[in-house]
Structure formats: C-alpha cells, structure tokens
UniProtKB/TrEMBL annotation:
Native source species: Nitratireductor indicus C115
Pfam families: Sua5_C (PF03481), Sua5_yciO_yrdC (PF01300)
InterPro entries cross-referenced by the UniProt entry: DHBP_synth_RibB-like_a/b_dom, Sua5-like_dom, Sua5/YwlC_C, Sua5_C, T(6)A37_SUA5, TC-AMP_synthase_SUA5
A biological process term (GO) from this entry: tRNA processing
Record's keyword terms, sorted: ATP-binding, Cytoplasm, Nucleotide-binding, Nucleotidyltransferase, Transferase, tRNA processing
EC number: 2.7.7.87
Binding site for ATP: 53, 57, 113, 138, 146, 190, 224
Descriptive protein name: Threonylcarbamoyl-AMP synthase
Function as written in the Swiss-Prot or TrEMBL entry: Required for the formation of a threonylcarbamoyl group on adenosine at position 37 (t(6)A37) in tRNAs that read codons beginning with adenine.
Any GO MF annotation of the entry: ATP binding
Length: 318
C-alpha cells in the first residue's frame, strides 16, 4: 500500500522517487496528479501502466517557471500573454514543441506539439527540486472519476504506487482548461478551471471550440466515468436512482433518491466544480445503478462541469 505523507514533510521523499523513475501521487490546485519525470520514458510508461491509460491520449508536462517552459515549447506573443495572465494556475497550453526537447514521446503521443502547464503549490516545488518537468495526469484509473483528495487516490491507486502526498482537498476541483495556440488563433480543447470568457478577455481573441483529433488529455468521448450509469439533465428521480443535485431547488422525486449529494446548495459554480468528482464517487458507492444529474448552467465553470458530466455519461467500451 502507498505511503501517505502530509505535504509539509513529503518533498524530499517525493523528489527522490521522481528522480528514480517512480510515480508519485501529488496535489495540484485542480485535482491530484499521478506524476513522473517527463523526460524519462520508462517513468512515463509507469503512469500509463498504473492508470491503464490509452497510449494515444497525450499527457500534460508540468513546469515550475517560464524558463523551464521555454526549454520545451515555442511561445509566440499570444502564448506569452496567456502565460502572464494565468500562470501559475489551471491553464494548459498546447504549443509547438522545440526540436530535441528531451520530453519523452510518450508524453506527447508522438505529436509535434506539447501540452504545458505551470501549476501552483507542492507540484511546482517538486518540479523545481527535480529540475525537470513532470507528466501528471489525474491520479485515478483511466476513464474513472478524477480524485480531489488523498483518500480518494488511496482508494483507487493505493495498491499500485509508493507515495501519496496529502494536501487536503484540491481548491479548483476540475482539471485545467486546455487551449491550443496556433499562430494568432486559439482552440478550446478542454474546458476546465479557467473559464473560456476569461481566456478570451485576456487574449483579445475569440476561442474556436473543438478539434478534429485527440490533441490533449480529456478528449476521449467516454471519460471520468463512475461505475453507475449517469443520466443528465434529469427532470425527475426514478426509483432506485441516486441524485447529483445542483442549487436550492430539487427536481420531482428527489425524496426517493437512494442517496443525494448537492454540488452547491447556493448554485455557486466554483463550489460545484470543486465538489464534482468527490460527489460522483460518493454516489457511485451508494450502490445505485443510475445517478440522475440535475441541470447545471453552461456559463463560466459550468461549461467544464457539463463537459465532464457528458463524458462520464457517454457510452463506454465494454
């Protein structure tokens, strides 16, 4: 079983494991990440093995400052503007990769671009001590609910890793927003912890939505899935269902739910994002075959929440 250390005591142990090519579960401001040295192909392969992740789904390389970011990617004026506005923070940029960058091809899934993020907190400190970027997808089995506490990581992956760094619940609660910077254009590849409207305001550029191929994490149609089926935009609760609620008013039949968790009783989207994955996990453990989800507005962080819910509800491979 994994050793669990508070972040105040964990840095030397975490860095030693990363340097040796091991994977370490550690907190970021978004969700807990399963981190490994991004320049070590065997270490990155351990991430895939631990998660059971498809090889064609790229990973994000996390850095500790702009100097490190510029070692691996080309930044134009637009990318620098976004970095100044949102780094460190929950924004990932997909940028042209520099030749011979040293990042393992397993991180980029063979693409000529690289997804980069500069996180806050323990993860950034560990990267600075290591002196190399880390790949760090969410610390959960592939396709399952992302983890926002050390306890959730331990329940899912504790038997497969050596160390979990515990910093309590993550403050953002959904993964980073991913945008591709292509010249003077921006494409939203995955909504997340930075609202699209804020990115457009900082960039002075309208976002194009969607991509023709998988260019970043979280773009598989079925993702973030609980074991139970998930029914979106429910207008009523059927017998035997659990309820993922939002806001102060309940849909018809809520009293019949076998279990209920409210993303935010006041309708606060930031609170809802922070609670999303933990509440899905709790409802999944209720034993209900189906989770009915009340509607969530599309504005602001609601776009990211609805994206995760839609992927969790999508048909999945058997």
């Amino acid at each position: 079983m994994a050793e669990i250390l508070p972040e105040s005591d964990a840095l030397p142990r975490a860095v030693a494991l990363l340097d040796a090519g091991a994977v370490v579960a550690m907190p970021t401001e978004t969700v807990y990440g399963l981190a490994a040295d991004a320049t070590n192909g065997e270490a990155v392969a351990r991430i895939y093995e631990t998660k059971g992740r498809p090889r064609f789904n790229p990973l994000i390389a996390h850095v500790c400052d702009m100097a490190m970011a510029e070692r691996f990617a080309e930044f134009n004026a637009l990318a620098r503007r976004l970095a100044e506005a949102f780094w460190p923070g929950p924004l990932t940029m997909v940028l042209p990769q520099k030749p011979q960058s040293g990042v393992s091809p397993l991180v980029t899934a063979g693409l000529d671009t690289i997804a980069l993020r500069w996180p806050r907190g323990f993860c950034a400190r560990a990267i600075a001590e290591l002196g190399r970027p880390v790949a760090a997808p969410s610390a959960n089995s592939s396709g399952r609910v992302s983890t926002t506490t050390a306890e959730a990581v331990d329940a899912d992956l504790g038997s497969r890793i050596e160390l979990i760094v515990d910093a309590g619940a993550t403050p953002v609660g959904v993964e980073s927003t991913i945008v591709k910077v292509d010249g003077n254009g921006l494409t939203l590849l995955r909504p997340g912890g930075v609202a699209a409207e804020d990115i457009e305001a900082a960039a002075g550029v309208r976002l194009t939505r969607g991509a023709k191929s998988i260019e970043a994490p979280g773009m598989l149609a079925s993702h973030y899935a609980p074991n139970a089926n998930l029914r979106l935009n429910a207008g009523e609760v059927a017998a035997g269902e659990a309820l993922l609620a939002f806001g102060p008013r309940r849909i018809s039949g809520a009293e019949k739910a076998v279990a209920m968790r409210n993303l935010s009783e006041t309708g606060d989207l930031r609170e809802a994002a922070a609670n999303l994955f933990s509440h899905l996990l709790e409802l999944d453990r209720s034993g209900a075959g189906t989770i009915a989800a009340e509607p969530v507005p599309e504005s602001g962080l609601g776009e990211a929440i609805n994206d995760r819910l839609a992927r969790a509800a999508a048909p999945r491979d058997s």
